[in-house]
Amino acid sequence: VNNNLHLYSALRLFMVDNGADDWRIAMTYERIFFICLELLVCAIHPIPGHYIFTWTARLAFTYTTSEADADVDIILSIPMFLRLYLITRVMLLHSKLFTDASSRSIGALNKINFNTRFVMKTLMTICPGTVLLVFSISSWIIAAWTVRVCERYHDKQEVTSNFLGAMWLISITFLSIGYGDMVPHTYCGKGVCLLTGIMGAGCTALVVAVVARKLELTKAEKHVHNFMMDTQLSKRVKNAAANVLRETWLIYKYTKLVKKIDHAKVRKHQRKFLQAIHHGTHSLCLSPSRPQTQNVMYDILSELQEKNEDLEKRIVTLENKLDTLTVSLQTLPGLIAHAIGQQQRDLFENHMHRFKQVTYSSERSWTPTRRRRSPSTAPHTSSDSS
User: Fold this and answer.
1) What pLDDT, on a 0 to 100 scale, did the predictor assign at position 125?
2) pLDDT band at 303, cuts 50/70/90?
3) Which Gene3D superfamilies does the record match to this protein (predicted)?
4) Dihedrals φ, ψ of 65, to 5°?
């Protein structure tokens, strides 16, 4: 029931976050696989009744076959430890990060999914030692109990079938020591020891990482350490510079201000002069301010390079625009000539059309007048007079 409620809540949250209308949108193949796996883990349970099967194993030292009647409940009881994943779910549901509305709002804005992995990472950041200690002790006890259950039917000497003996076997396997005084006989015990060795290697690596992180200097401690080292190195540089000046004066003294040159003393002071120069340059190289200056110079050069690249991009864009403008200017005279010619043709056609209209209207007005004047203006003939 709890698993179904958790699944229903997860589906509802997915639908609300993504604005989905159908719950089947949230059912991906991965989610379906984990749901089936969770149902399978929760369905494993010992069957009511007393059922026995014959368990055959090969003893480690004598290499003889051992047979024993074992309960079926062993096969169904050991996988029930897989239900311990529910502890992480309880930690998630009762975590302040999960229950705090402000934390969830900030996580939603940054697209952070508050799941078990995020809670475990947070705990490993806040209290890594406690988490590793609880996980190691819990794994140690569970593995010891599992080995005792697997080995009690075939351990005639009651070495690994005893709980303390099983804890000793798991501890030396967890720490990758393996004295060889105790060994499992069954494949079940061997598998548990194999998983214990893998978990031990992982926990050892995590412990090393946690210890290395704890041994690191904090930011304030690093500043103090760098300041002290810088002070000491500056003193060394000053001493080296003073030694260089002293040896320079002594070399000048024993070569120019004496009547007879002592070559042994001159060589001695020349060696000291070179040593002082070497110590001074070495101290300058070890100065903490030198890497800081290099970092500042690197940042400045990176910024200048970015600005240069941006400027080059702008120049290329400007050149492309200038090329486009040049092509447009080259085609502009032809366009202007074409436009002027088109306007002239249109103007000529308009004038011709108007001229035709005027001519046609004048012809129409002149023809009726001529017809009206023709009878009166005709000459008289002899027949008309008679």
Assistant:
1) 86
2) confident
3) 1.10.287.70
4) -85, 135
